[in-house]
Write a structure and sequence with these properties.
By secondary structure, the chain is of the alpha+beta class. The protein contains 3 helices and 8 strands; from the N terminus they run H-E-H-E-E-E-E-E-E-H-E. The chain is globular and about 50 Å long.
């Protein structure tokens, strides 16, 4: 109890010694996108393809999706190797970090994708798989991002939604294409 009283008493002193600090912008923004598809494949087949983005992911820093890998376990990395070039060694990019891995049901990753990495934004991509009839799977692809940026994130939402739809489309294409309306 005495330690708490000392900490409380110290707060005004700590605040008084802060040099020229100010909050210059405390607004926040973000957006959420959702894309849905139904495929003629069971959840086992969809999961097996989902965890191999090197087969269907279309946007990379290296220009080659073969450089992607996804470690499907909590804390695992959705990463990309940047090949050595111009006398510099190979590099790497962490696209997202696995936070929920429930095989056949949910894959959730946290992190900012592409140019959003350069901002004070974070995103969460949740891919949910549900049985949608005999031998069919509904894939729901939710991407939510928010935080602080040097631009209005909402103005970027349509572009990001298009890219997310492209990613889901690549996965669906590997699984034989959509079978019917997801609604």
């Amino acid at each position: 109890m005495k330690r708490i009283a000392l900490l409380i008493a110290a707060v005004p002193t700590l605040l008084a010694t802060t040099a020229a600090a100010e909050v210059i912008d405390s607004s926040h923004g973000g957006f959420a996108t959702r894309n849905v598809a139904v495929v003629a494949a069971d959840r086992h087949a969809v999961w097996a393809e989902l965890v191999h983005p090197e087969n269907w992911w279309s946007h990379t820093w290296s220009g080659d999706s073969a450089n992607l890998r996804l470690d499907a376990e909590a804390g695992g990395c959705f990463c990309e190797t940047i090949p050595a070039a111009d006398g510099f060694p190979a590099g790497s990019v962490e696209h997202m970090r696995m936070v929920t891995v429930m095989p056949g049901r949910v894959l959730r990753m946290a992190g900012s994708l592409g140019p959003l990495q350069a901002e004070g934004l974070t995103g969460t991509l949740t891919v949910t798989l549900e049985q949608a009839g005999e031998g069919r799977t509904r894939i729901t692809w939710d991407y939510i991002t928010g935080g602080q940026a040097s631009f209005d994130p909402a103005a970027f939402a349509t572009v990001v939604d298009g890219v997310q739809a492209e990613f889901l489309g690549g996965l669906v294409g590997r699984l034989g294409g959509p079978v019917d309306s997801p609604e």
